[in-house]
Specification:
18% of the residues lie in helices and 36% in strands.
C-alpha cells in the first residue's frame, strides 16, 4: 500500500508529521538521531555499555567498554488500530539500508561517536544545524 491509496485526511496528516520530523533531531552522549529535511530518511545511532566480569567474581557494570549501533533507513507508515477498533496510520522506521545513495557504507556497529559522526557527514543528506542537546 502506498500513500496514494490512503484517504486524503491521512495523507495530509502523514505529510505534516513527516515535515515535523526534521525538527526532532537529537545529539546526546547516548543517542544521535537525524532526519533529512523532507522527513523521508533517518539515521539513528545508540550507545551501549558492556559489563565486565572476571573469573574471581569481580564485576563492573560499565567496565567492559562501549559500542554504537547504527541504523540508516527510510521513514514509512504502518497501519494500526486504536482502542475503538478504527484504522489509523503512523510514521515508523521502515526499510533499513547498509549503503547510502552516494555509496557510503553504513556499518551495523562502530566503536566511537567520532566514527558515528563521520558516517553521518559522509552520507551528507542530514541537516547539522537543527539539533537539540539533552
Amino acid at each position: 500500500m502506498t500513500t496514494n491509496d490512503l484517504p486524503a485526511e491521512w495523507r495530509e496528516k502523514l505529510a505534516a508529521d513527516r515535515l515535523a520530523l526534521a525538527e526532532q533531531n537529537r545529539d546526546t552522549p547516548y543517542e544521535v538521531l537525524r532526519y533529512n529535511a523532507e522527513g523521508t530518511r533517518y539515521f539513528r545511532a545508540r550507545r551501549y555499555c558492556r559489563s565486565w566480569r572476571d573469573d574471581k567474581g569481580h564485576e563492573m557494570p560499565f567496565g567492559g567498554g562501549t559500542y554504537w549501533t547504527v541504523t540508516y533507513g527510510a521513514v514509512q507508515f504502518r497501519r494500526t488500530r486504536n482502542p475503538l477498533g478504527q484504522t489509523e496510520y503512523e510514521l515508523s522506521d521502515g526499510k533499513r539500508y547498509t549503503r547510502s545513495a552516494n555509496g557510503t557504507e553504513v556499518p551495523a556497529r562502530v566503536g566511537t561517536k567520532k566514527e558515528v559522526l563521520r558516517i553521518l557527514n559522509d552520507i551528507g543528506i542530514f541537516q547539522q544545524q537543527k539539533t537539540t542537546k539533552q
